[in-house]
Amino acid sequence: MTAPGRRSSTFTRLLRHGFTDPSAAERLLDGAELAPVRADPVLLDALGATADPDLALLGLVRLVEAQDGHTAQRELLDTLIASKPLRDRLLGVLGASAALADHLARHPQDWQALAMYEPRDLHPGVEEFERGLAEADDPVSLRVAYRRCLLSIAARDVCGTTDVAQTAAELADLATATLRAALAIARAAAPDDGALCRLAVVAMGKCGGHELNYVSDVDVIFVGEAADGADEGKAIQAATRLASHMMRICSESTVEGSIWPVDANLRPEGRNGPLVRTLSSHLAYYQRWAKTWEFQALLKARPVAGDLALGDQYVQMLAPLVWQAAERENFVPDVQKMRRRVVENIPVAEIERELKLGPGGLRDVEFAVQLLQLVHGRADTSLRSGTTLDALKALAAGGYVGRADAVQLDAAYRFLRSMEHRIQLYRLRRTHLVPEGEADLRRIGRSLGLRTDPVTELNREWKRHASVVRRLHEKLFYRPLLDAVAQLAPGETRLSPGAARERLVALGYADPAAALRHLEALASGVTRKAAIQRTLLPVLLGWFADSADPDAGLLNFRKVSDALGKTPWYLRLLRDEGAAAENLARVLSAGRLAPDLLMRAPEAVALLGDGAAGGLEARSRAHLEQEVLAAVSRASGGEQAVTAARGVRRRELFRTAAADIVASYGTEETPAVADQGALVDRVGAAISDLTAATLSGTLRAVVRDTWGETLPTRFAVIGMGRFGGHELNYGSDADVLFVHEPREGADEQEAARAANTVVSEMRRLLQLPSSDPPLLIDADLRPEGKSGPLVRTLKSYAAYYRRWSLGWESQALLRAEPVAGDEDLGRRFIELIDPLRYPADGLGDDAVREIRRLKARMESERMPRGADPTLHTKLGRGGLSDVEWTVQLLQLRHGATEPGLRTTRTRAALAAASAAGLLSEEDAEILDEAWVLATRVRNAVMLVRGRAGDTFPSDGRELAAVGRYLGYEAGHVGDLLDGYRRTTRRARAVVDDLFYGG
Q1: Burial 849-877 (b: 16+ CB within 10 A, else e)
Q2: pTM beyond 0.85
Q3: CA separation (Å) from 691 to 195, 688, 724, 739, 921?
């Protein structure tokens, strides 16, 4: 029995050597298996040097137990104590991999594979591994031989004999040898098939790139051809059988487990395509049908098994297509979109632990490097390596990546790959998730040399390297563009002008020479301003490239920067406030309207920040009126007052447009707003409130300038059309009616002259030439139209509507709402017209027929010549007019009995009609979707072109920008138009039923 004092001493020593369960370790050391070496201090020291001393000790005891007799046990233990190389290798593997410990327990003689220590064992290649697998003649023996070879790779890895890149290369070489052995077994099982065909196995992915993990799918593509004299169809069938058998040999589970899955889904058409194709079939597919990501995948293609000459033919044949991929339309957005899709598909609960696919993970480095290879590898063959770290080194040597960035990314990639290796090595399972258990994290940390506080140090190093990758992986593409136009330190390699232009074209810039001039103007020099720009521009260039017009984004940014460059807060805002720079990039590259508004008063860029002075939330009508009226009161005359009001309007239009663009595009932190109706309502309400506040301020200015505080007549402005319905677009005129009522004791003629003077002066002031956008007042919906007086008294309106009112005027009055001036007069005007727009008895058949006749005439007469009726947002099939007339007919017929229909807003009236059972919920949704989409298109056209329009732009870039605003990715303009036609076609069917047939 062990004395208490000695037990305490052993317990303490075990703790000091890194054991977490000293009691269990002490029992194992006291067992009979280790009796011959228990007292030898080198054993405890060697165990303490492993990643998990407890695991290593348990594995050693199991291995000794499994030896065949006492002599074999002594041989193992004697060699273990006498040979430091074996001791380090064997215990290192046992302390890092429970799976390999299991293998050694099942095959106890395989420890001898670690005893040899000859120079050729240091860096084995395919030939050495083929010798190691040579005796395998069935799937079971192949697995045993594979694990024996894997033992030696893991031993060199955990002992530090090889670095992570060498380990990954050895794993790829072992996979190559294994595929060859599996194919040989398959051929031996079907010699007739082997005689009929030539079959090449082309490795893809990490195996093809010579950078494989311990446990990973081995991606392959099969190429087949007929052997001399054989029928091609039969040959491909034979090749398919051989390929399928080879895959099963590697993938299927046996008593010795599986090796790894062989995945052929990178082949043309994926899992739906034939497993084996001929060279000509492969070429035809890649020439006609292949997507951008398929060429990216071919970067790593490497013949590894079967007919290597045929595999080389395949690679050489497709190489020109691979290096032309960057010339494809939307190349960079396609690659970046695929990367984003990968991140979006990661379960939320796993994204923070995802080592490979998550933000700042391995895939970020690999995507960035592959993107640069595809852009610049066309002209520079030194970049055409399938291995990530080799390619990164070549990119840095050529000046395509900054050297400091490359060094940081190399270190981060090596650390993250080392973590991935250690995680997989433990159980030999395919995973990229960092474990959560402290014991697992401790083992991984210790295996990477972090011994003081393994868990804390591992988490710190992991987060640090992931942060480096996150910071650099996109900037990697853009930063060298600045170096190309900047003064570099001696010895630094810059991107050549040709390479810089090449990269800008790949990013979607139509005029790369102009883009380089802008970059030079912004970022060259030694001033603090230039230094900040060099920090900002790599990120901004990426955001510009994500738009339909990167050239415009960069040009507009230069204009804004030139205008605000000397203000101390501008660059500080962009640098320090997270949202400001991205919001600005989105706004400047989304079209003409918002940048034009910003250029007229560049200080409005402050609205894009997320600090106290910023904010894109729309302001209330009361808040706007208060500001406008305060500005008017401070002005010295009418023109100056209205100039101030128009200045507020310009700033708020920019705020509305910027908020709309940011919400429609989304940002890196916030996804695009999915509710299109909410976006439409937000814009319509904001512009309508702003127009009302501007009219209130203008009215106050005109009255004060001529009459002081009191006009001799009460005066009100009634909003009509989209203005009254809170549905104004960016390019809408303000449809209004003017009503007045002489004050008590005032002369009626003088009151009328005053009211007409107010109207004409308001219209003049709001259209004065200025840097601010004009506000056009349209009063054509007044009684008698353009022939009638611009302003009437309330009594005159009452007399006209009583005697002469037409059906279309009642329909127009459905949108009437007071917006400015005397509130009581506005309220009484509404009381006057309510019986007209909501007739107590509804509409008679004659009135309904007249409305239908007017609508049909408008469709035929007002549609512009040559316009496509399926794409005209206002008058076209299922467009705004169709939906609005349908809703308004329901309001005229049922508004008297259904209070919910008494609203000036189209969507609210449609919802009320559905709630009242006047149309089905499905029909209401169809009409609402079409109305929202048509409104969004009109808003998009104005934002993109800077002028109003009811049809889609014909210019390709403008149409793409409209698509981006509406949520369509680059290259999907056809889907945009098809989607619009499909939505409006369904709406027109409902209109035909409800408006013309109901």
Answers
A1: eebeeebeeebeeebeeeeeeebbbbbbb
A2: no
A3: 83, 5, 11, 18, 33
